[in-house]
Amino acid sequence: MFTGIVQEIGTVERVEPHSGSKGDARDQRLEITFARIPRERLAPGDSISVDGVCLTVAALQAQSFVADVSGETLRVTTLGARRPGARVNLEPALRAGDGLGGHWVSGHVDGIAEVLSISEDARSLNVELSAPSGLSRYIARKGSVTLDGVSLTVNAVDGDHFSINLIPHTLEVTTLGALSRGSRLNLEIDLLARYVERLGSA
Fold first, then answer.
1. What is the mean pLDDT of residues 99-116?
2. How far is CA 66 from CA 43, 46, 61, in A?
């Protein structure tokens, strides 16, 4: 479990494809460098959010960790497009007693949102995005969403489109400061929306 409060921007150091029986890449192993996350927060077997995707630390070096990414995860997230040098949002798993500054985030990506437009709003940026049609029903004005591992509040919703506001701090400490039109982001809807639907259909 995570909070959507990014602890550090890491860098993809190495991408190692693993081939299936037909020779096509079925999964990958990523090596990601980090500097500020305390080493005691990461150990082999621990979970870590990488751009909003919950991965398991397979190995740990002095300044980097290694994680395996399954073919399914590559298919439904943007991690398959990450290349050496790419910057990624990192958050270690929540521990008992940690503060909950964002909202409950599972690290299970629901789909991919695309940036439609970016406009200045005083010192902040207003970003309009499109969501997969099957997910838009779970996005509510003033509700929470997670984009590339960042907990954000929804400003407005119009059909499959929704908008969020990025304050200067978020632009500085996450990769969202590099967004442009057409950027694709890992989207996780609020856990509460899933449970409300399940209870309503029971």
1. 89
2. 11, 11, 8
Q: CA 26 to CA 127: how far, in whole Å? A: 33
Q: Note the pLDDT of residue 125.
A: 97
Contacts of 136 (CB under 8 A, 6+ apart): 157, 159, 160, 162
Lookup result for tokens 């499109």: 130
> By the 8 A CB rule, do 170 and 185 touch?
no
> Could you tell me the two tokens for 49?
């959010």
Rounded to an integer, what distance in angstroms lies between the CA atom of residue 70 and that of residue 18?
10
Tell me the DSSP string of 108-161: ---EEEEEEEEEEETTEEEEEEE--TTTGGG--TT-EEEETTEEEEEEEEETTE
pLDDT value, residue 21:
46
Q: What is the predicted pLDDT for the residue at 195?
A: 66
Distance CA(10)–CA(94), nearest Å, equals 18
- pLDDT tens digit string along 39-85? 889 999 999 999 999 999 999 998 999 999 999 999 999 999 999 99
Q: What pLDDT, on a 0 to 100 scale, did the predictor assign at position 26? A: 79
Question: Helix H segments across the chain?
Answer: 71-76, 168-173, 191-201
